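Ligand: adenosine-5'-triphosphate. Inputs:
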Amino acid sequence: GAVIGILGGGQLGRMLSMAAARLGLRCHVFEPGANPPAAQVADRLTTAGYDDHAALRDFAASVDVITYEFENIPTDALDLLEKLRPIRPGREALRVSQDRLTEKTFLRDLGLATAPYADVTDAASLQRAIDAIGRPAILKTRRFGYDGKGQVRLDPDSDPAAALADMAGAPAVLEGFVRFDREISVIAARGLTGEVACFDPGENVHKDGILHTTTVPAQLRPGLRSDAILLAARILGALDYVGVMGVELFVTDAGLVVNEIAPRVHNSGHWTQNGCVVDQFEQHIRAVAGWPLGNGARHADVVMENLIGDDMDRVADLARDPDVALHLYGKTETRPGRKMGHANRVIHR
Ligand code: ATP
Ligand code: MG
Ligand code: MG
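Predicted complex:
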């Protein structure tokens, strides 16, 4: 059988490895950090850094295809790996999504709505951006942000200089504040031969900048469900994408606004593990391994809740709940804000 190489051994790499194992495929995970959650399930683990080119070469030689659980893989490592094995999703998806400015420009050029945005490199460009976009607005680092990190809100009376200082010299974008009714996401998959399958949109609620719950079905007015799915399919087609992508959307009076895209399996798609015959992890493995996509139709209503930090204290209670499927990541150290697991509450219709 084929061997899937996975860059990144966090919970996403772990759940990808589990899905691959179910399909009889083996996984080799590459992860520089200690005690990666994927270690318990991957067939093979390399704990070298991305600057260790010999380790990267050995990794590539041992696998048939390379995929990843995070988008910030160093460019040098990608340059090396892509000469040796196919990387799926491909470089274009990574190039576009590693940088918020590139990503927004790509989406706008596709004709999709985004928040108004402008490039910010210094005090003068920040002032120009504020003049053009207005406030409230959000200043975000262009790269490496997640879980709301590297973001600061600019209210009409706040000090732009302080916000800029928070960026610590990193290139940033200013985004106009979108007045949304709700946030949804589409988890979309595209196979090697171009077929597209989207999971039902889920509705996302954040707490302290971190995803708290995803509920399916999302409450959407007529038309927006298909708009969301068609829009996601367009993004995948434009990138000649292979694999699963998370597309985060704001629902506004004027329609859907794209917040951001993630070229990988996505936290807001964890509900699919208990709401679909084939979940996002299997769908991703199928796509990158060149299999046909599976049936991602939703057969139940689900509320996915992230278990973050001390939420782990509730695990014993959740384990007794007959409607809850628990997914724990095997992390030994609990820290505030750390994603430890998730609970899928399944409501059979
Ligand atoms: P993730 O963990 O999803 O990758 P992130 O750090 O990349 O998060 P964003 O998705 O850009 O952050 O923003 C986090 C949340 O902040 C959004 O889900 C939304 O609730 C809010 N937000 C971000 N940008 C805007 C905006 N332009 N207008 C209104 N709200 C916003
Ligand atoms: Mg993000
Ligand atoms: Mg986000």
